[in-house]
Amino acid sequence: xxxxxxxxxxxxxxxxxxxxxxxxxxxxxxxxxxxxxxxxxxxxxxxxxxxxxxxxxxxxxxxxxxxxxxxxxxxxxxxxxxxxxxxxxxxxxxxxxxxxxxxxxxxxxxxxxxxxxxxxxxxxxxxxxxxxxxxxxxxxxxxxxxxxxxxxxxxxxxxxxxxxxxxxxxxxxxxxxxxxxxxxxxxxxxxxxxxxxxxxxxxxxxxxxxxxxxxxxxxxxxxxxxxxxxxxxxxxxxxxxxxxxxxxxxxxxxxxxxxxxxxxxxxxxxxxxxxxxxxxxxxxxxxxxxxxxxxxxxxxxxxxxxxxxxxx
Length: 312
Hints:
By secondary structure, the chain is mostly helical. Helices cover 76% and strands 0% of the residues. It has helices spanning 4-30, 36-57, 67-93, 96-102, 106-118, 124-141, 152-169, 178-197, 207-233, 236-239, 245-258, 264-293, 297-302, 305-308. Helix 5 crosses helix 6 and helix 5 (106-118) packs across helix 7.
């Protein structure tokens, strides 16, 4: 029987995914009037104000990271900037459901990267799931086929940068506050986008665009907040698969707001990615429990890479 904590965690995760998709929907609407980097810069400023206010209230805004944490934070910022630019570029040119389906390969990519970079043990079952999952991604992308959108490769690039972001986050010590990390990341992402936007022609910012950007930053902050609440409320193995509800929200909003209806191949590819991702969550959780039972703390920590990874 599912516990009430797990039910709350699943609900919080589903709500968080809705927040992330609403954020992307607002940004896609903004792109009709504003240049990409101008929009990222303005959203970054608004998001920084939100995070900064909360961090200030909780006295987590002033922190002096260790040298190791500073290096990890630098890599995380690079990953965040790269993923934002790549994903939003793809989103500008693609249906929201297609772009969102591609980046659902992140847990699989993180598991593979953890094995290659950190030497974490990955058995043939998970390697097989990774191979099948990326086959699903290729079904979505369909390079060379009719209807192929080259901007799908920008979404794949976003996956790579998100892996860098999430793996570097794993390197943080417990001393560095999460809100400090989020605030520094938001500020530096906004600064980068602002610098690039100075080389582009700025578009006039009207009340409608400001409203969409404000809503976007609010929904993004809302998504971050509820994803944290979800992971704290229930078991990782139960709650994590509900990240994939983001595809349901993306399809619904894609149809209602933009009139984009995913084709059959996209739905098939997305299903393959989701099934293999859920299997990876299940397999890693099973190995983690076995390692804990055997008293292998280090191994248990290692095999949990997938479930702890962020969705966005």
